[in-house]
TrEMBL record:
<dbReference type="GO" id="GO:0016491">
    <property type="term" value="F:oxidoreductase activity"/>
</dbReference>
<dbReference type="GO" id="GO:0005829">
    <property type="term" value="C:cytosol"/>
</dbReference>
<dbReference type="InterPro" id="IPR023210">
    <property type="entry name" value="NADP_OxRdtase_dom"/>
</dbReference>
<dbReference type="Pfam" id="PF00248">
    <property type="entry name" value="Aldo_ket_red"/>
</dbReference>
<dbReference type="InterPro" id="IPR050523">
    <property type="entry name" value="AKR_Detox_Biosynth"/>
</dbReference>
<feature type="domain" description="NADP-dependent oxidoreductase">
    <location>
        <begin position="16"/>
        <end position="293"/>
    </location>
</feature>
<keyword id="KW-0560">Oxidoreductase</keyword>
<dbReference type="InterPro" id="IPR036812">
    <property type="entry name" value="NAD(P)_OxRdtase_dom_sf"/>
</dbReference>
<protein>
    <submittedName>
        <fullName>Predicted oxidoreductase</fullName>
    </submittedName>
</protein>
Length: 327
């Protein structure tokens, strides 16, 4: 496995991230992490709301400094307490202290805001995160599940006020769910942020279930999901790979900023998923996968793209200008 820099930082992260949300057995958890590490993986992603996930990692991870430990806060610690959730300073401080205890460490390498909180000023969140960084309890910060304008405002504030900016963005991304291509992915590329893409297998739809399960589940799939799964299987047969590898490889083919975040419930799944980093999809395969499921960028992306080659807008030389690349 190769490594990439995490956003505009010097932190080296493996090109495939391991999500630990589904891990619930300590013995199997240790085997999964060992298999991932043996393949060169070094990022373990969890959250304060993942049940015993943080505590399990704290118990089974033996080579702490060899891993990039990432966790999240925002989600409720106590449903009856209005201040036990959200992105305000009080919840950040208490959630972080609890995560550090569970993980049995004095710092987390990446601390994610789990979801945008409309009721907390982004200024408060960014200042509180920067305080945690300056205290040495957090090394880098990122944000998950937030509008593009919120992320841009947050990082602009950080730049102006010398606070720690978001280096990473965490979003759902797969062949069936490409919404992030409209605003979020171009924004992340422009700002130099890494994009941790969760659900790259679309909750198993693109993973290539065994034939007997496929027959049972097929009726529950929408026509769009069936078309995507069929296209993945066709490319899989041509390349001699596994469906999960093709689905993961597609997310990597779309942008260099994307780091697939994959979960696993067995060592066999880890080995299969890691194999995706060795798979390069031919351009024709990428086109056929995308043609199988309808997706429209929508306004303003599609409108701007049309205007870029329109002489009425940019003159007769519109098609002879070499740009700076994506975004």
């Amino acid at each position: 496995m190769r490594y990439r820099l995490f956003g505009n930082t010097g932190l080296r992260v493996s090109e495939l991230l391991l999500g630990t949300m589904v891990l619930d057995d300590r013995r199997e958890c240790r085997r999964i992490i060992d298999a991932y590490a043996d393949a060169g993986g070094n990022v373990l992603d969890t959250a304060s709301a993942y049940g015993d996930g943080e505590s399990m990692l704290g118990e089974v991870v033996e080579r702490r400094d060899r891993f990039v430990i990432a966790t999240k806060y925002t989600l409720s610690r106590d449903a009856a307490d209005p201040n036990a959730s959200g992105n305000h300073r009080k919840n950040l401080r208490l959630s972080l202290e609890r995560s550090l205890r569970r993980l049995r460490t004095d710092h987390v390498d990446i601390y994610w805001v789990h979801i945008w909180d409309r009721h907390t000023p982004i200024e408060e969140t960014m200042r509180a995160l920067d305080d945690a960084v300056r205290a040495g309890k957090v090394l880098y910060v990122g944000i998950s599940d937030a509008p593009a304008w919120v992320v841009v405002r947050a990082n602009t504030l950080a730049e102006w006020r010398d606070w720690t900016p978001f280096a990473g963005l965490q979003v759902p991304y797969n062949l069936l769910r490409r919404d992030v291509e409209r605003e979020l992915l171009p924004m992340a590329e422009a700002l130099g942020m890494s994009v941790a893409a969760w659900a790259p297998l679309a909750s198993g739809v693109l993973s290539g279930a065994p034939e007997e399960r496929r027959r049972v589940d097929a009726a529950a799939l929408t026509p769009r999901e069936r078309a995507a799964a069929r296209a993945v299987r066709d490319v899989t047969d041509e390349l001699g790979a596994r469906p999960a590898q093709v689905a993961i490889a597609w997310t990597r083919a779309r942008s260099h900023a994307v780091l697939p975040l994959v979960g696993a419930s067995s060592t066999e799944q880890v080995v299969e998923n890691v194999g995706a980093v060795e798979l390069t999809l031919p351009d024709d395969a990428v086109r056929r996968l995308e043609a199988a499921v309808e997706f429209e960028p929508g306004f303003p992306g599609d409108f701007i793209a049309e205007c870029e080659t329109n002489p009425f807008v940019f003159g007769d030389t519109a098609t002879r200008v070499d740009g700076r690349g994506p975004g």
